[in-house]
Each structure stands twice: as structure tokens, then as C-alpha cells.
Design a protein that fits this description.
By secondary structure, the chain is mostly beta strands. The chain has helices at about 30-35, 105-110, and strands spanning about 5-10, 15-20, 25-30, 40-45, 50-55, 60, 70-75, 80-85, 95, 115.
Length: about 130
């Protein structure tokens, strides 16, 4: 069941609300950006997110296939959201960085399934051999 969460960057310039069901699982990826930033996200549909402030303070970073868009605060650098520009089987093209959710219950997060993707090889349907570092 979806629950309303509030998220923000570290400095507070960017804030949003998201309707999210953590029981559907969270996602980690072994691509170079996700690994370096230790990004952990949950997939949602774009209409599940409502920006409260700071949309104009978001900057984006793309690399590789350029389909993955990492959105971060221009002021403090916190990665808060992501977007995937392409076809996904579940239709969820936004990624919410779960550790940027201000009212997240850590016990609830730890109970959520974690799906790990081999983004380093652009093989998102498979888990990489090594995942302990993620």
C-alpha cells in the first residue's frame, strides 16, 4: 500500500512529496554513478511525485547511454531523484533516493526487498555477481 513520504536535499532548497509502496521493493545498481554515490532508490511513476520547492534548483547528470538522468541539488549536491528515459516493463520511470526521505522509518526500509541491477553492463534485468559493496 502506498504511503506519503516527504523528501529533501541536505540544505533544504529542494523538497518534494512522494506516494510510495516500499513493499514493492527498492533498487540498487552497480553502475559507476550509483556505486560512487551509494544510491539506493525506489521506482515510482512520475505522477506519484509532487515538487514542493526547488525544482529550479535541480541539476541533472547523464552518462553512458544518457537514458538515466540523475537529479541533484545545485546548492548542496544531494542526489534526490532520478528519471529513466526509455521503456521499462513496469512503467515506473522515476527513482526516489530513499535515504533522502525525511520521514522514512529505517525499520520499514530494512523490511523492503532490495533488487540489485547490473547497470555497469547495461543489463538491468540481471543481478551482478558481486553486490556486497552496494
Amino acid at each position: 500500500m502506498k504511503k506519503l513520504y516527504h523528501g529533501s536535499c541536505h540544505c533544504g532548497a529542494v523538497a518534494y512529496q512522494v506516494n510510495l509502496d516500499l513493499a514493492e521493493g527498492t533498487h540498487k545498481c552497480n553502475c559507476t554513478v550509483c556505486t560512487k554515490h551509494r544510491l539506493w532508490q525506489a521506482a515510482v511513476r512520475p505522477d506519484d511525485i509532487r515538487m514542493l520547492r526547488g525544482a529550479d534548483n535541480l541539476s541533472e547528470y547523464r552518462f553512458g547511454s544518457r537514458r538515466g538522468v540523475h537529479l541533484f541539488c545545485k546548492t548542496c549536491g544531494t542526489h534526490v531523484l532520478g528519471r529513466f528515459e526509455g521503456e521499462l516493463p513496469h512503467g515506473k520511470t522515476m527513482g526516489v533516493r530513499v535515504l533522502a526521505l525525511d520521514d522514512l522509518d529505517i525499520a520499514e526500509l530494512m523490511a523492503a526487498p532490495i533488487h540489485i541491477h547490473d547497470g555497469r553492463r547495461d543489463n538491468f534485468g540481471h543481478e551482478p555477481e558481486e553486490t556486497r559493496h552496494l
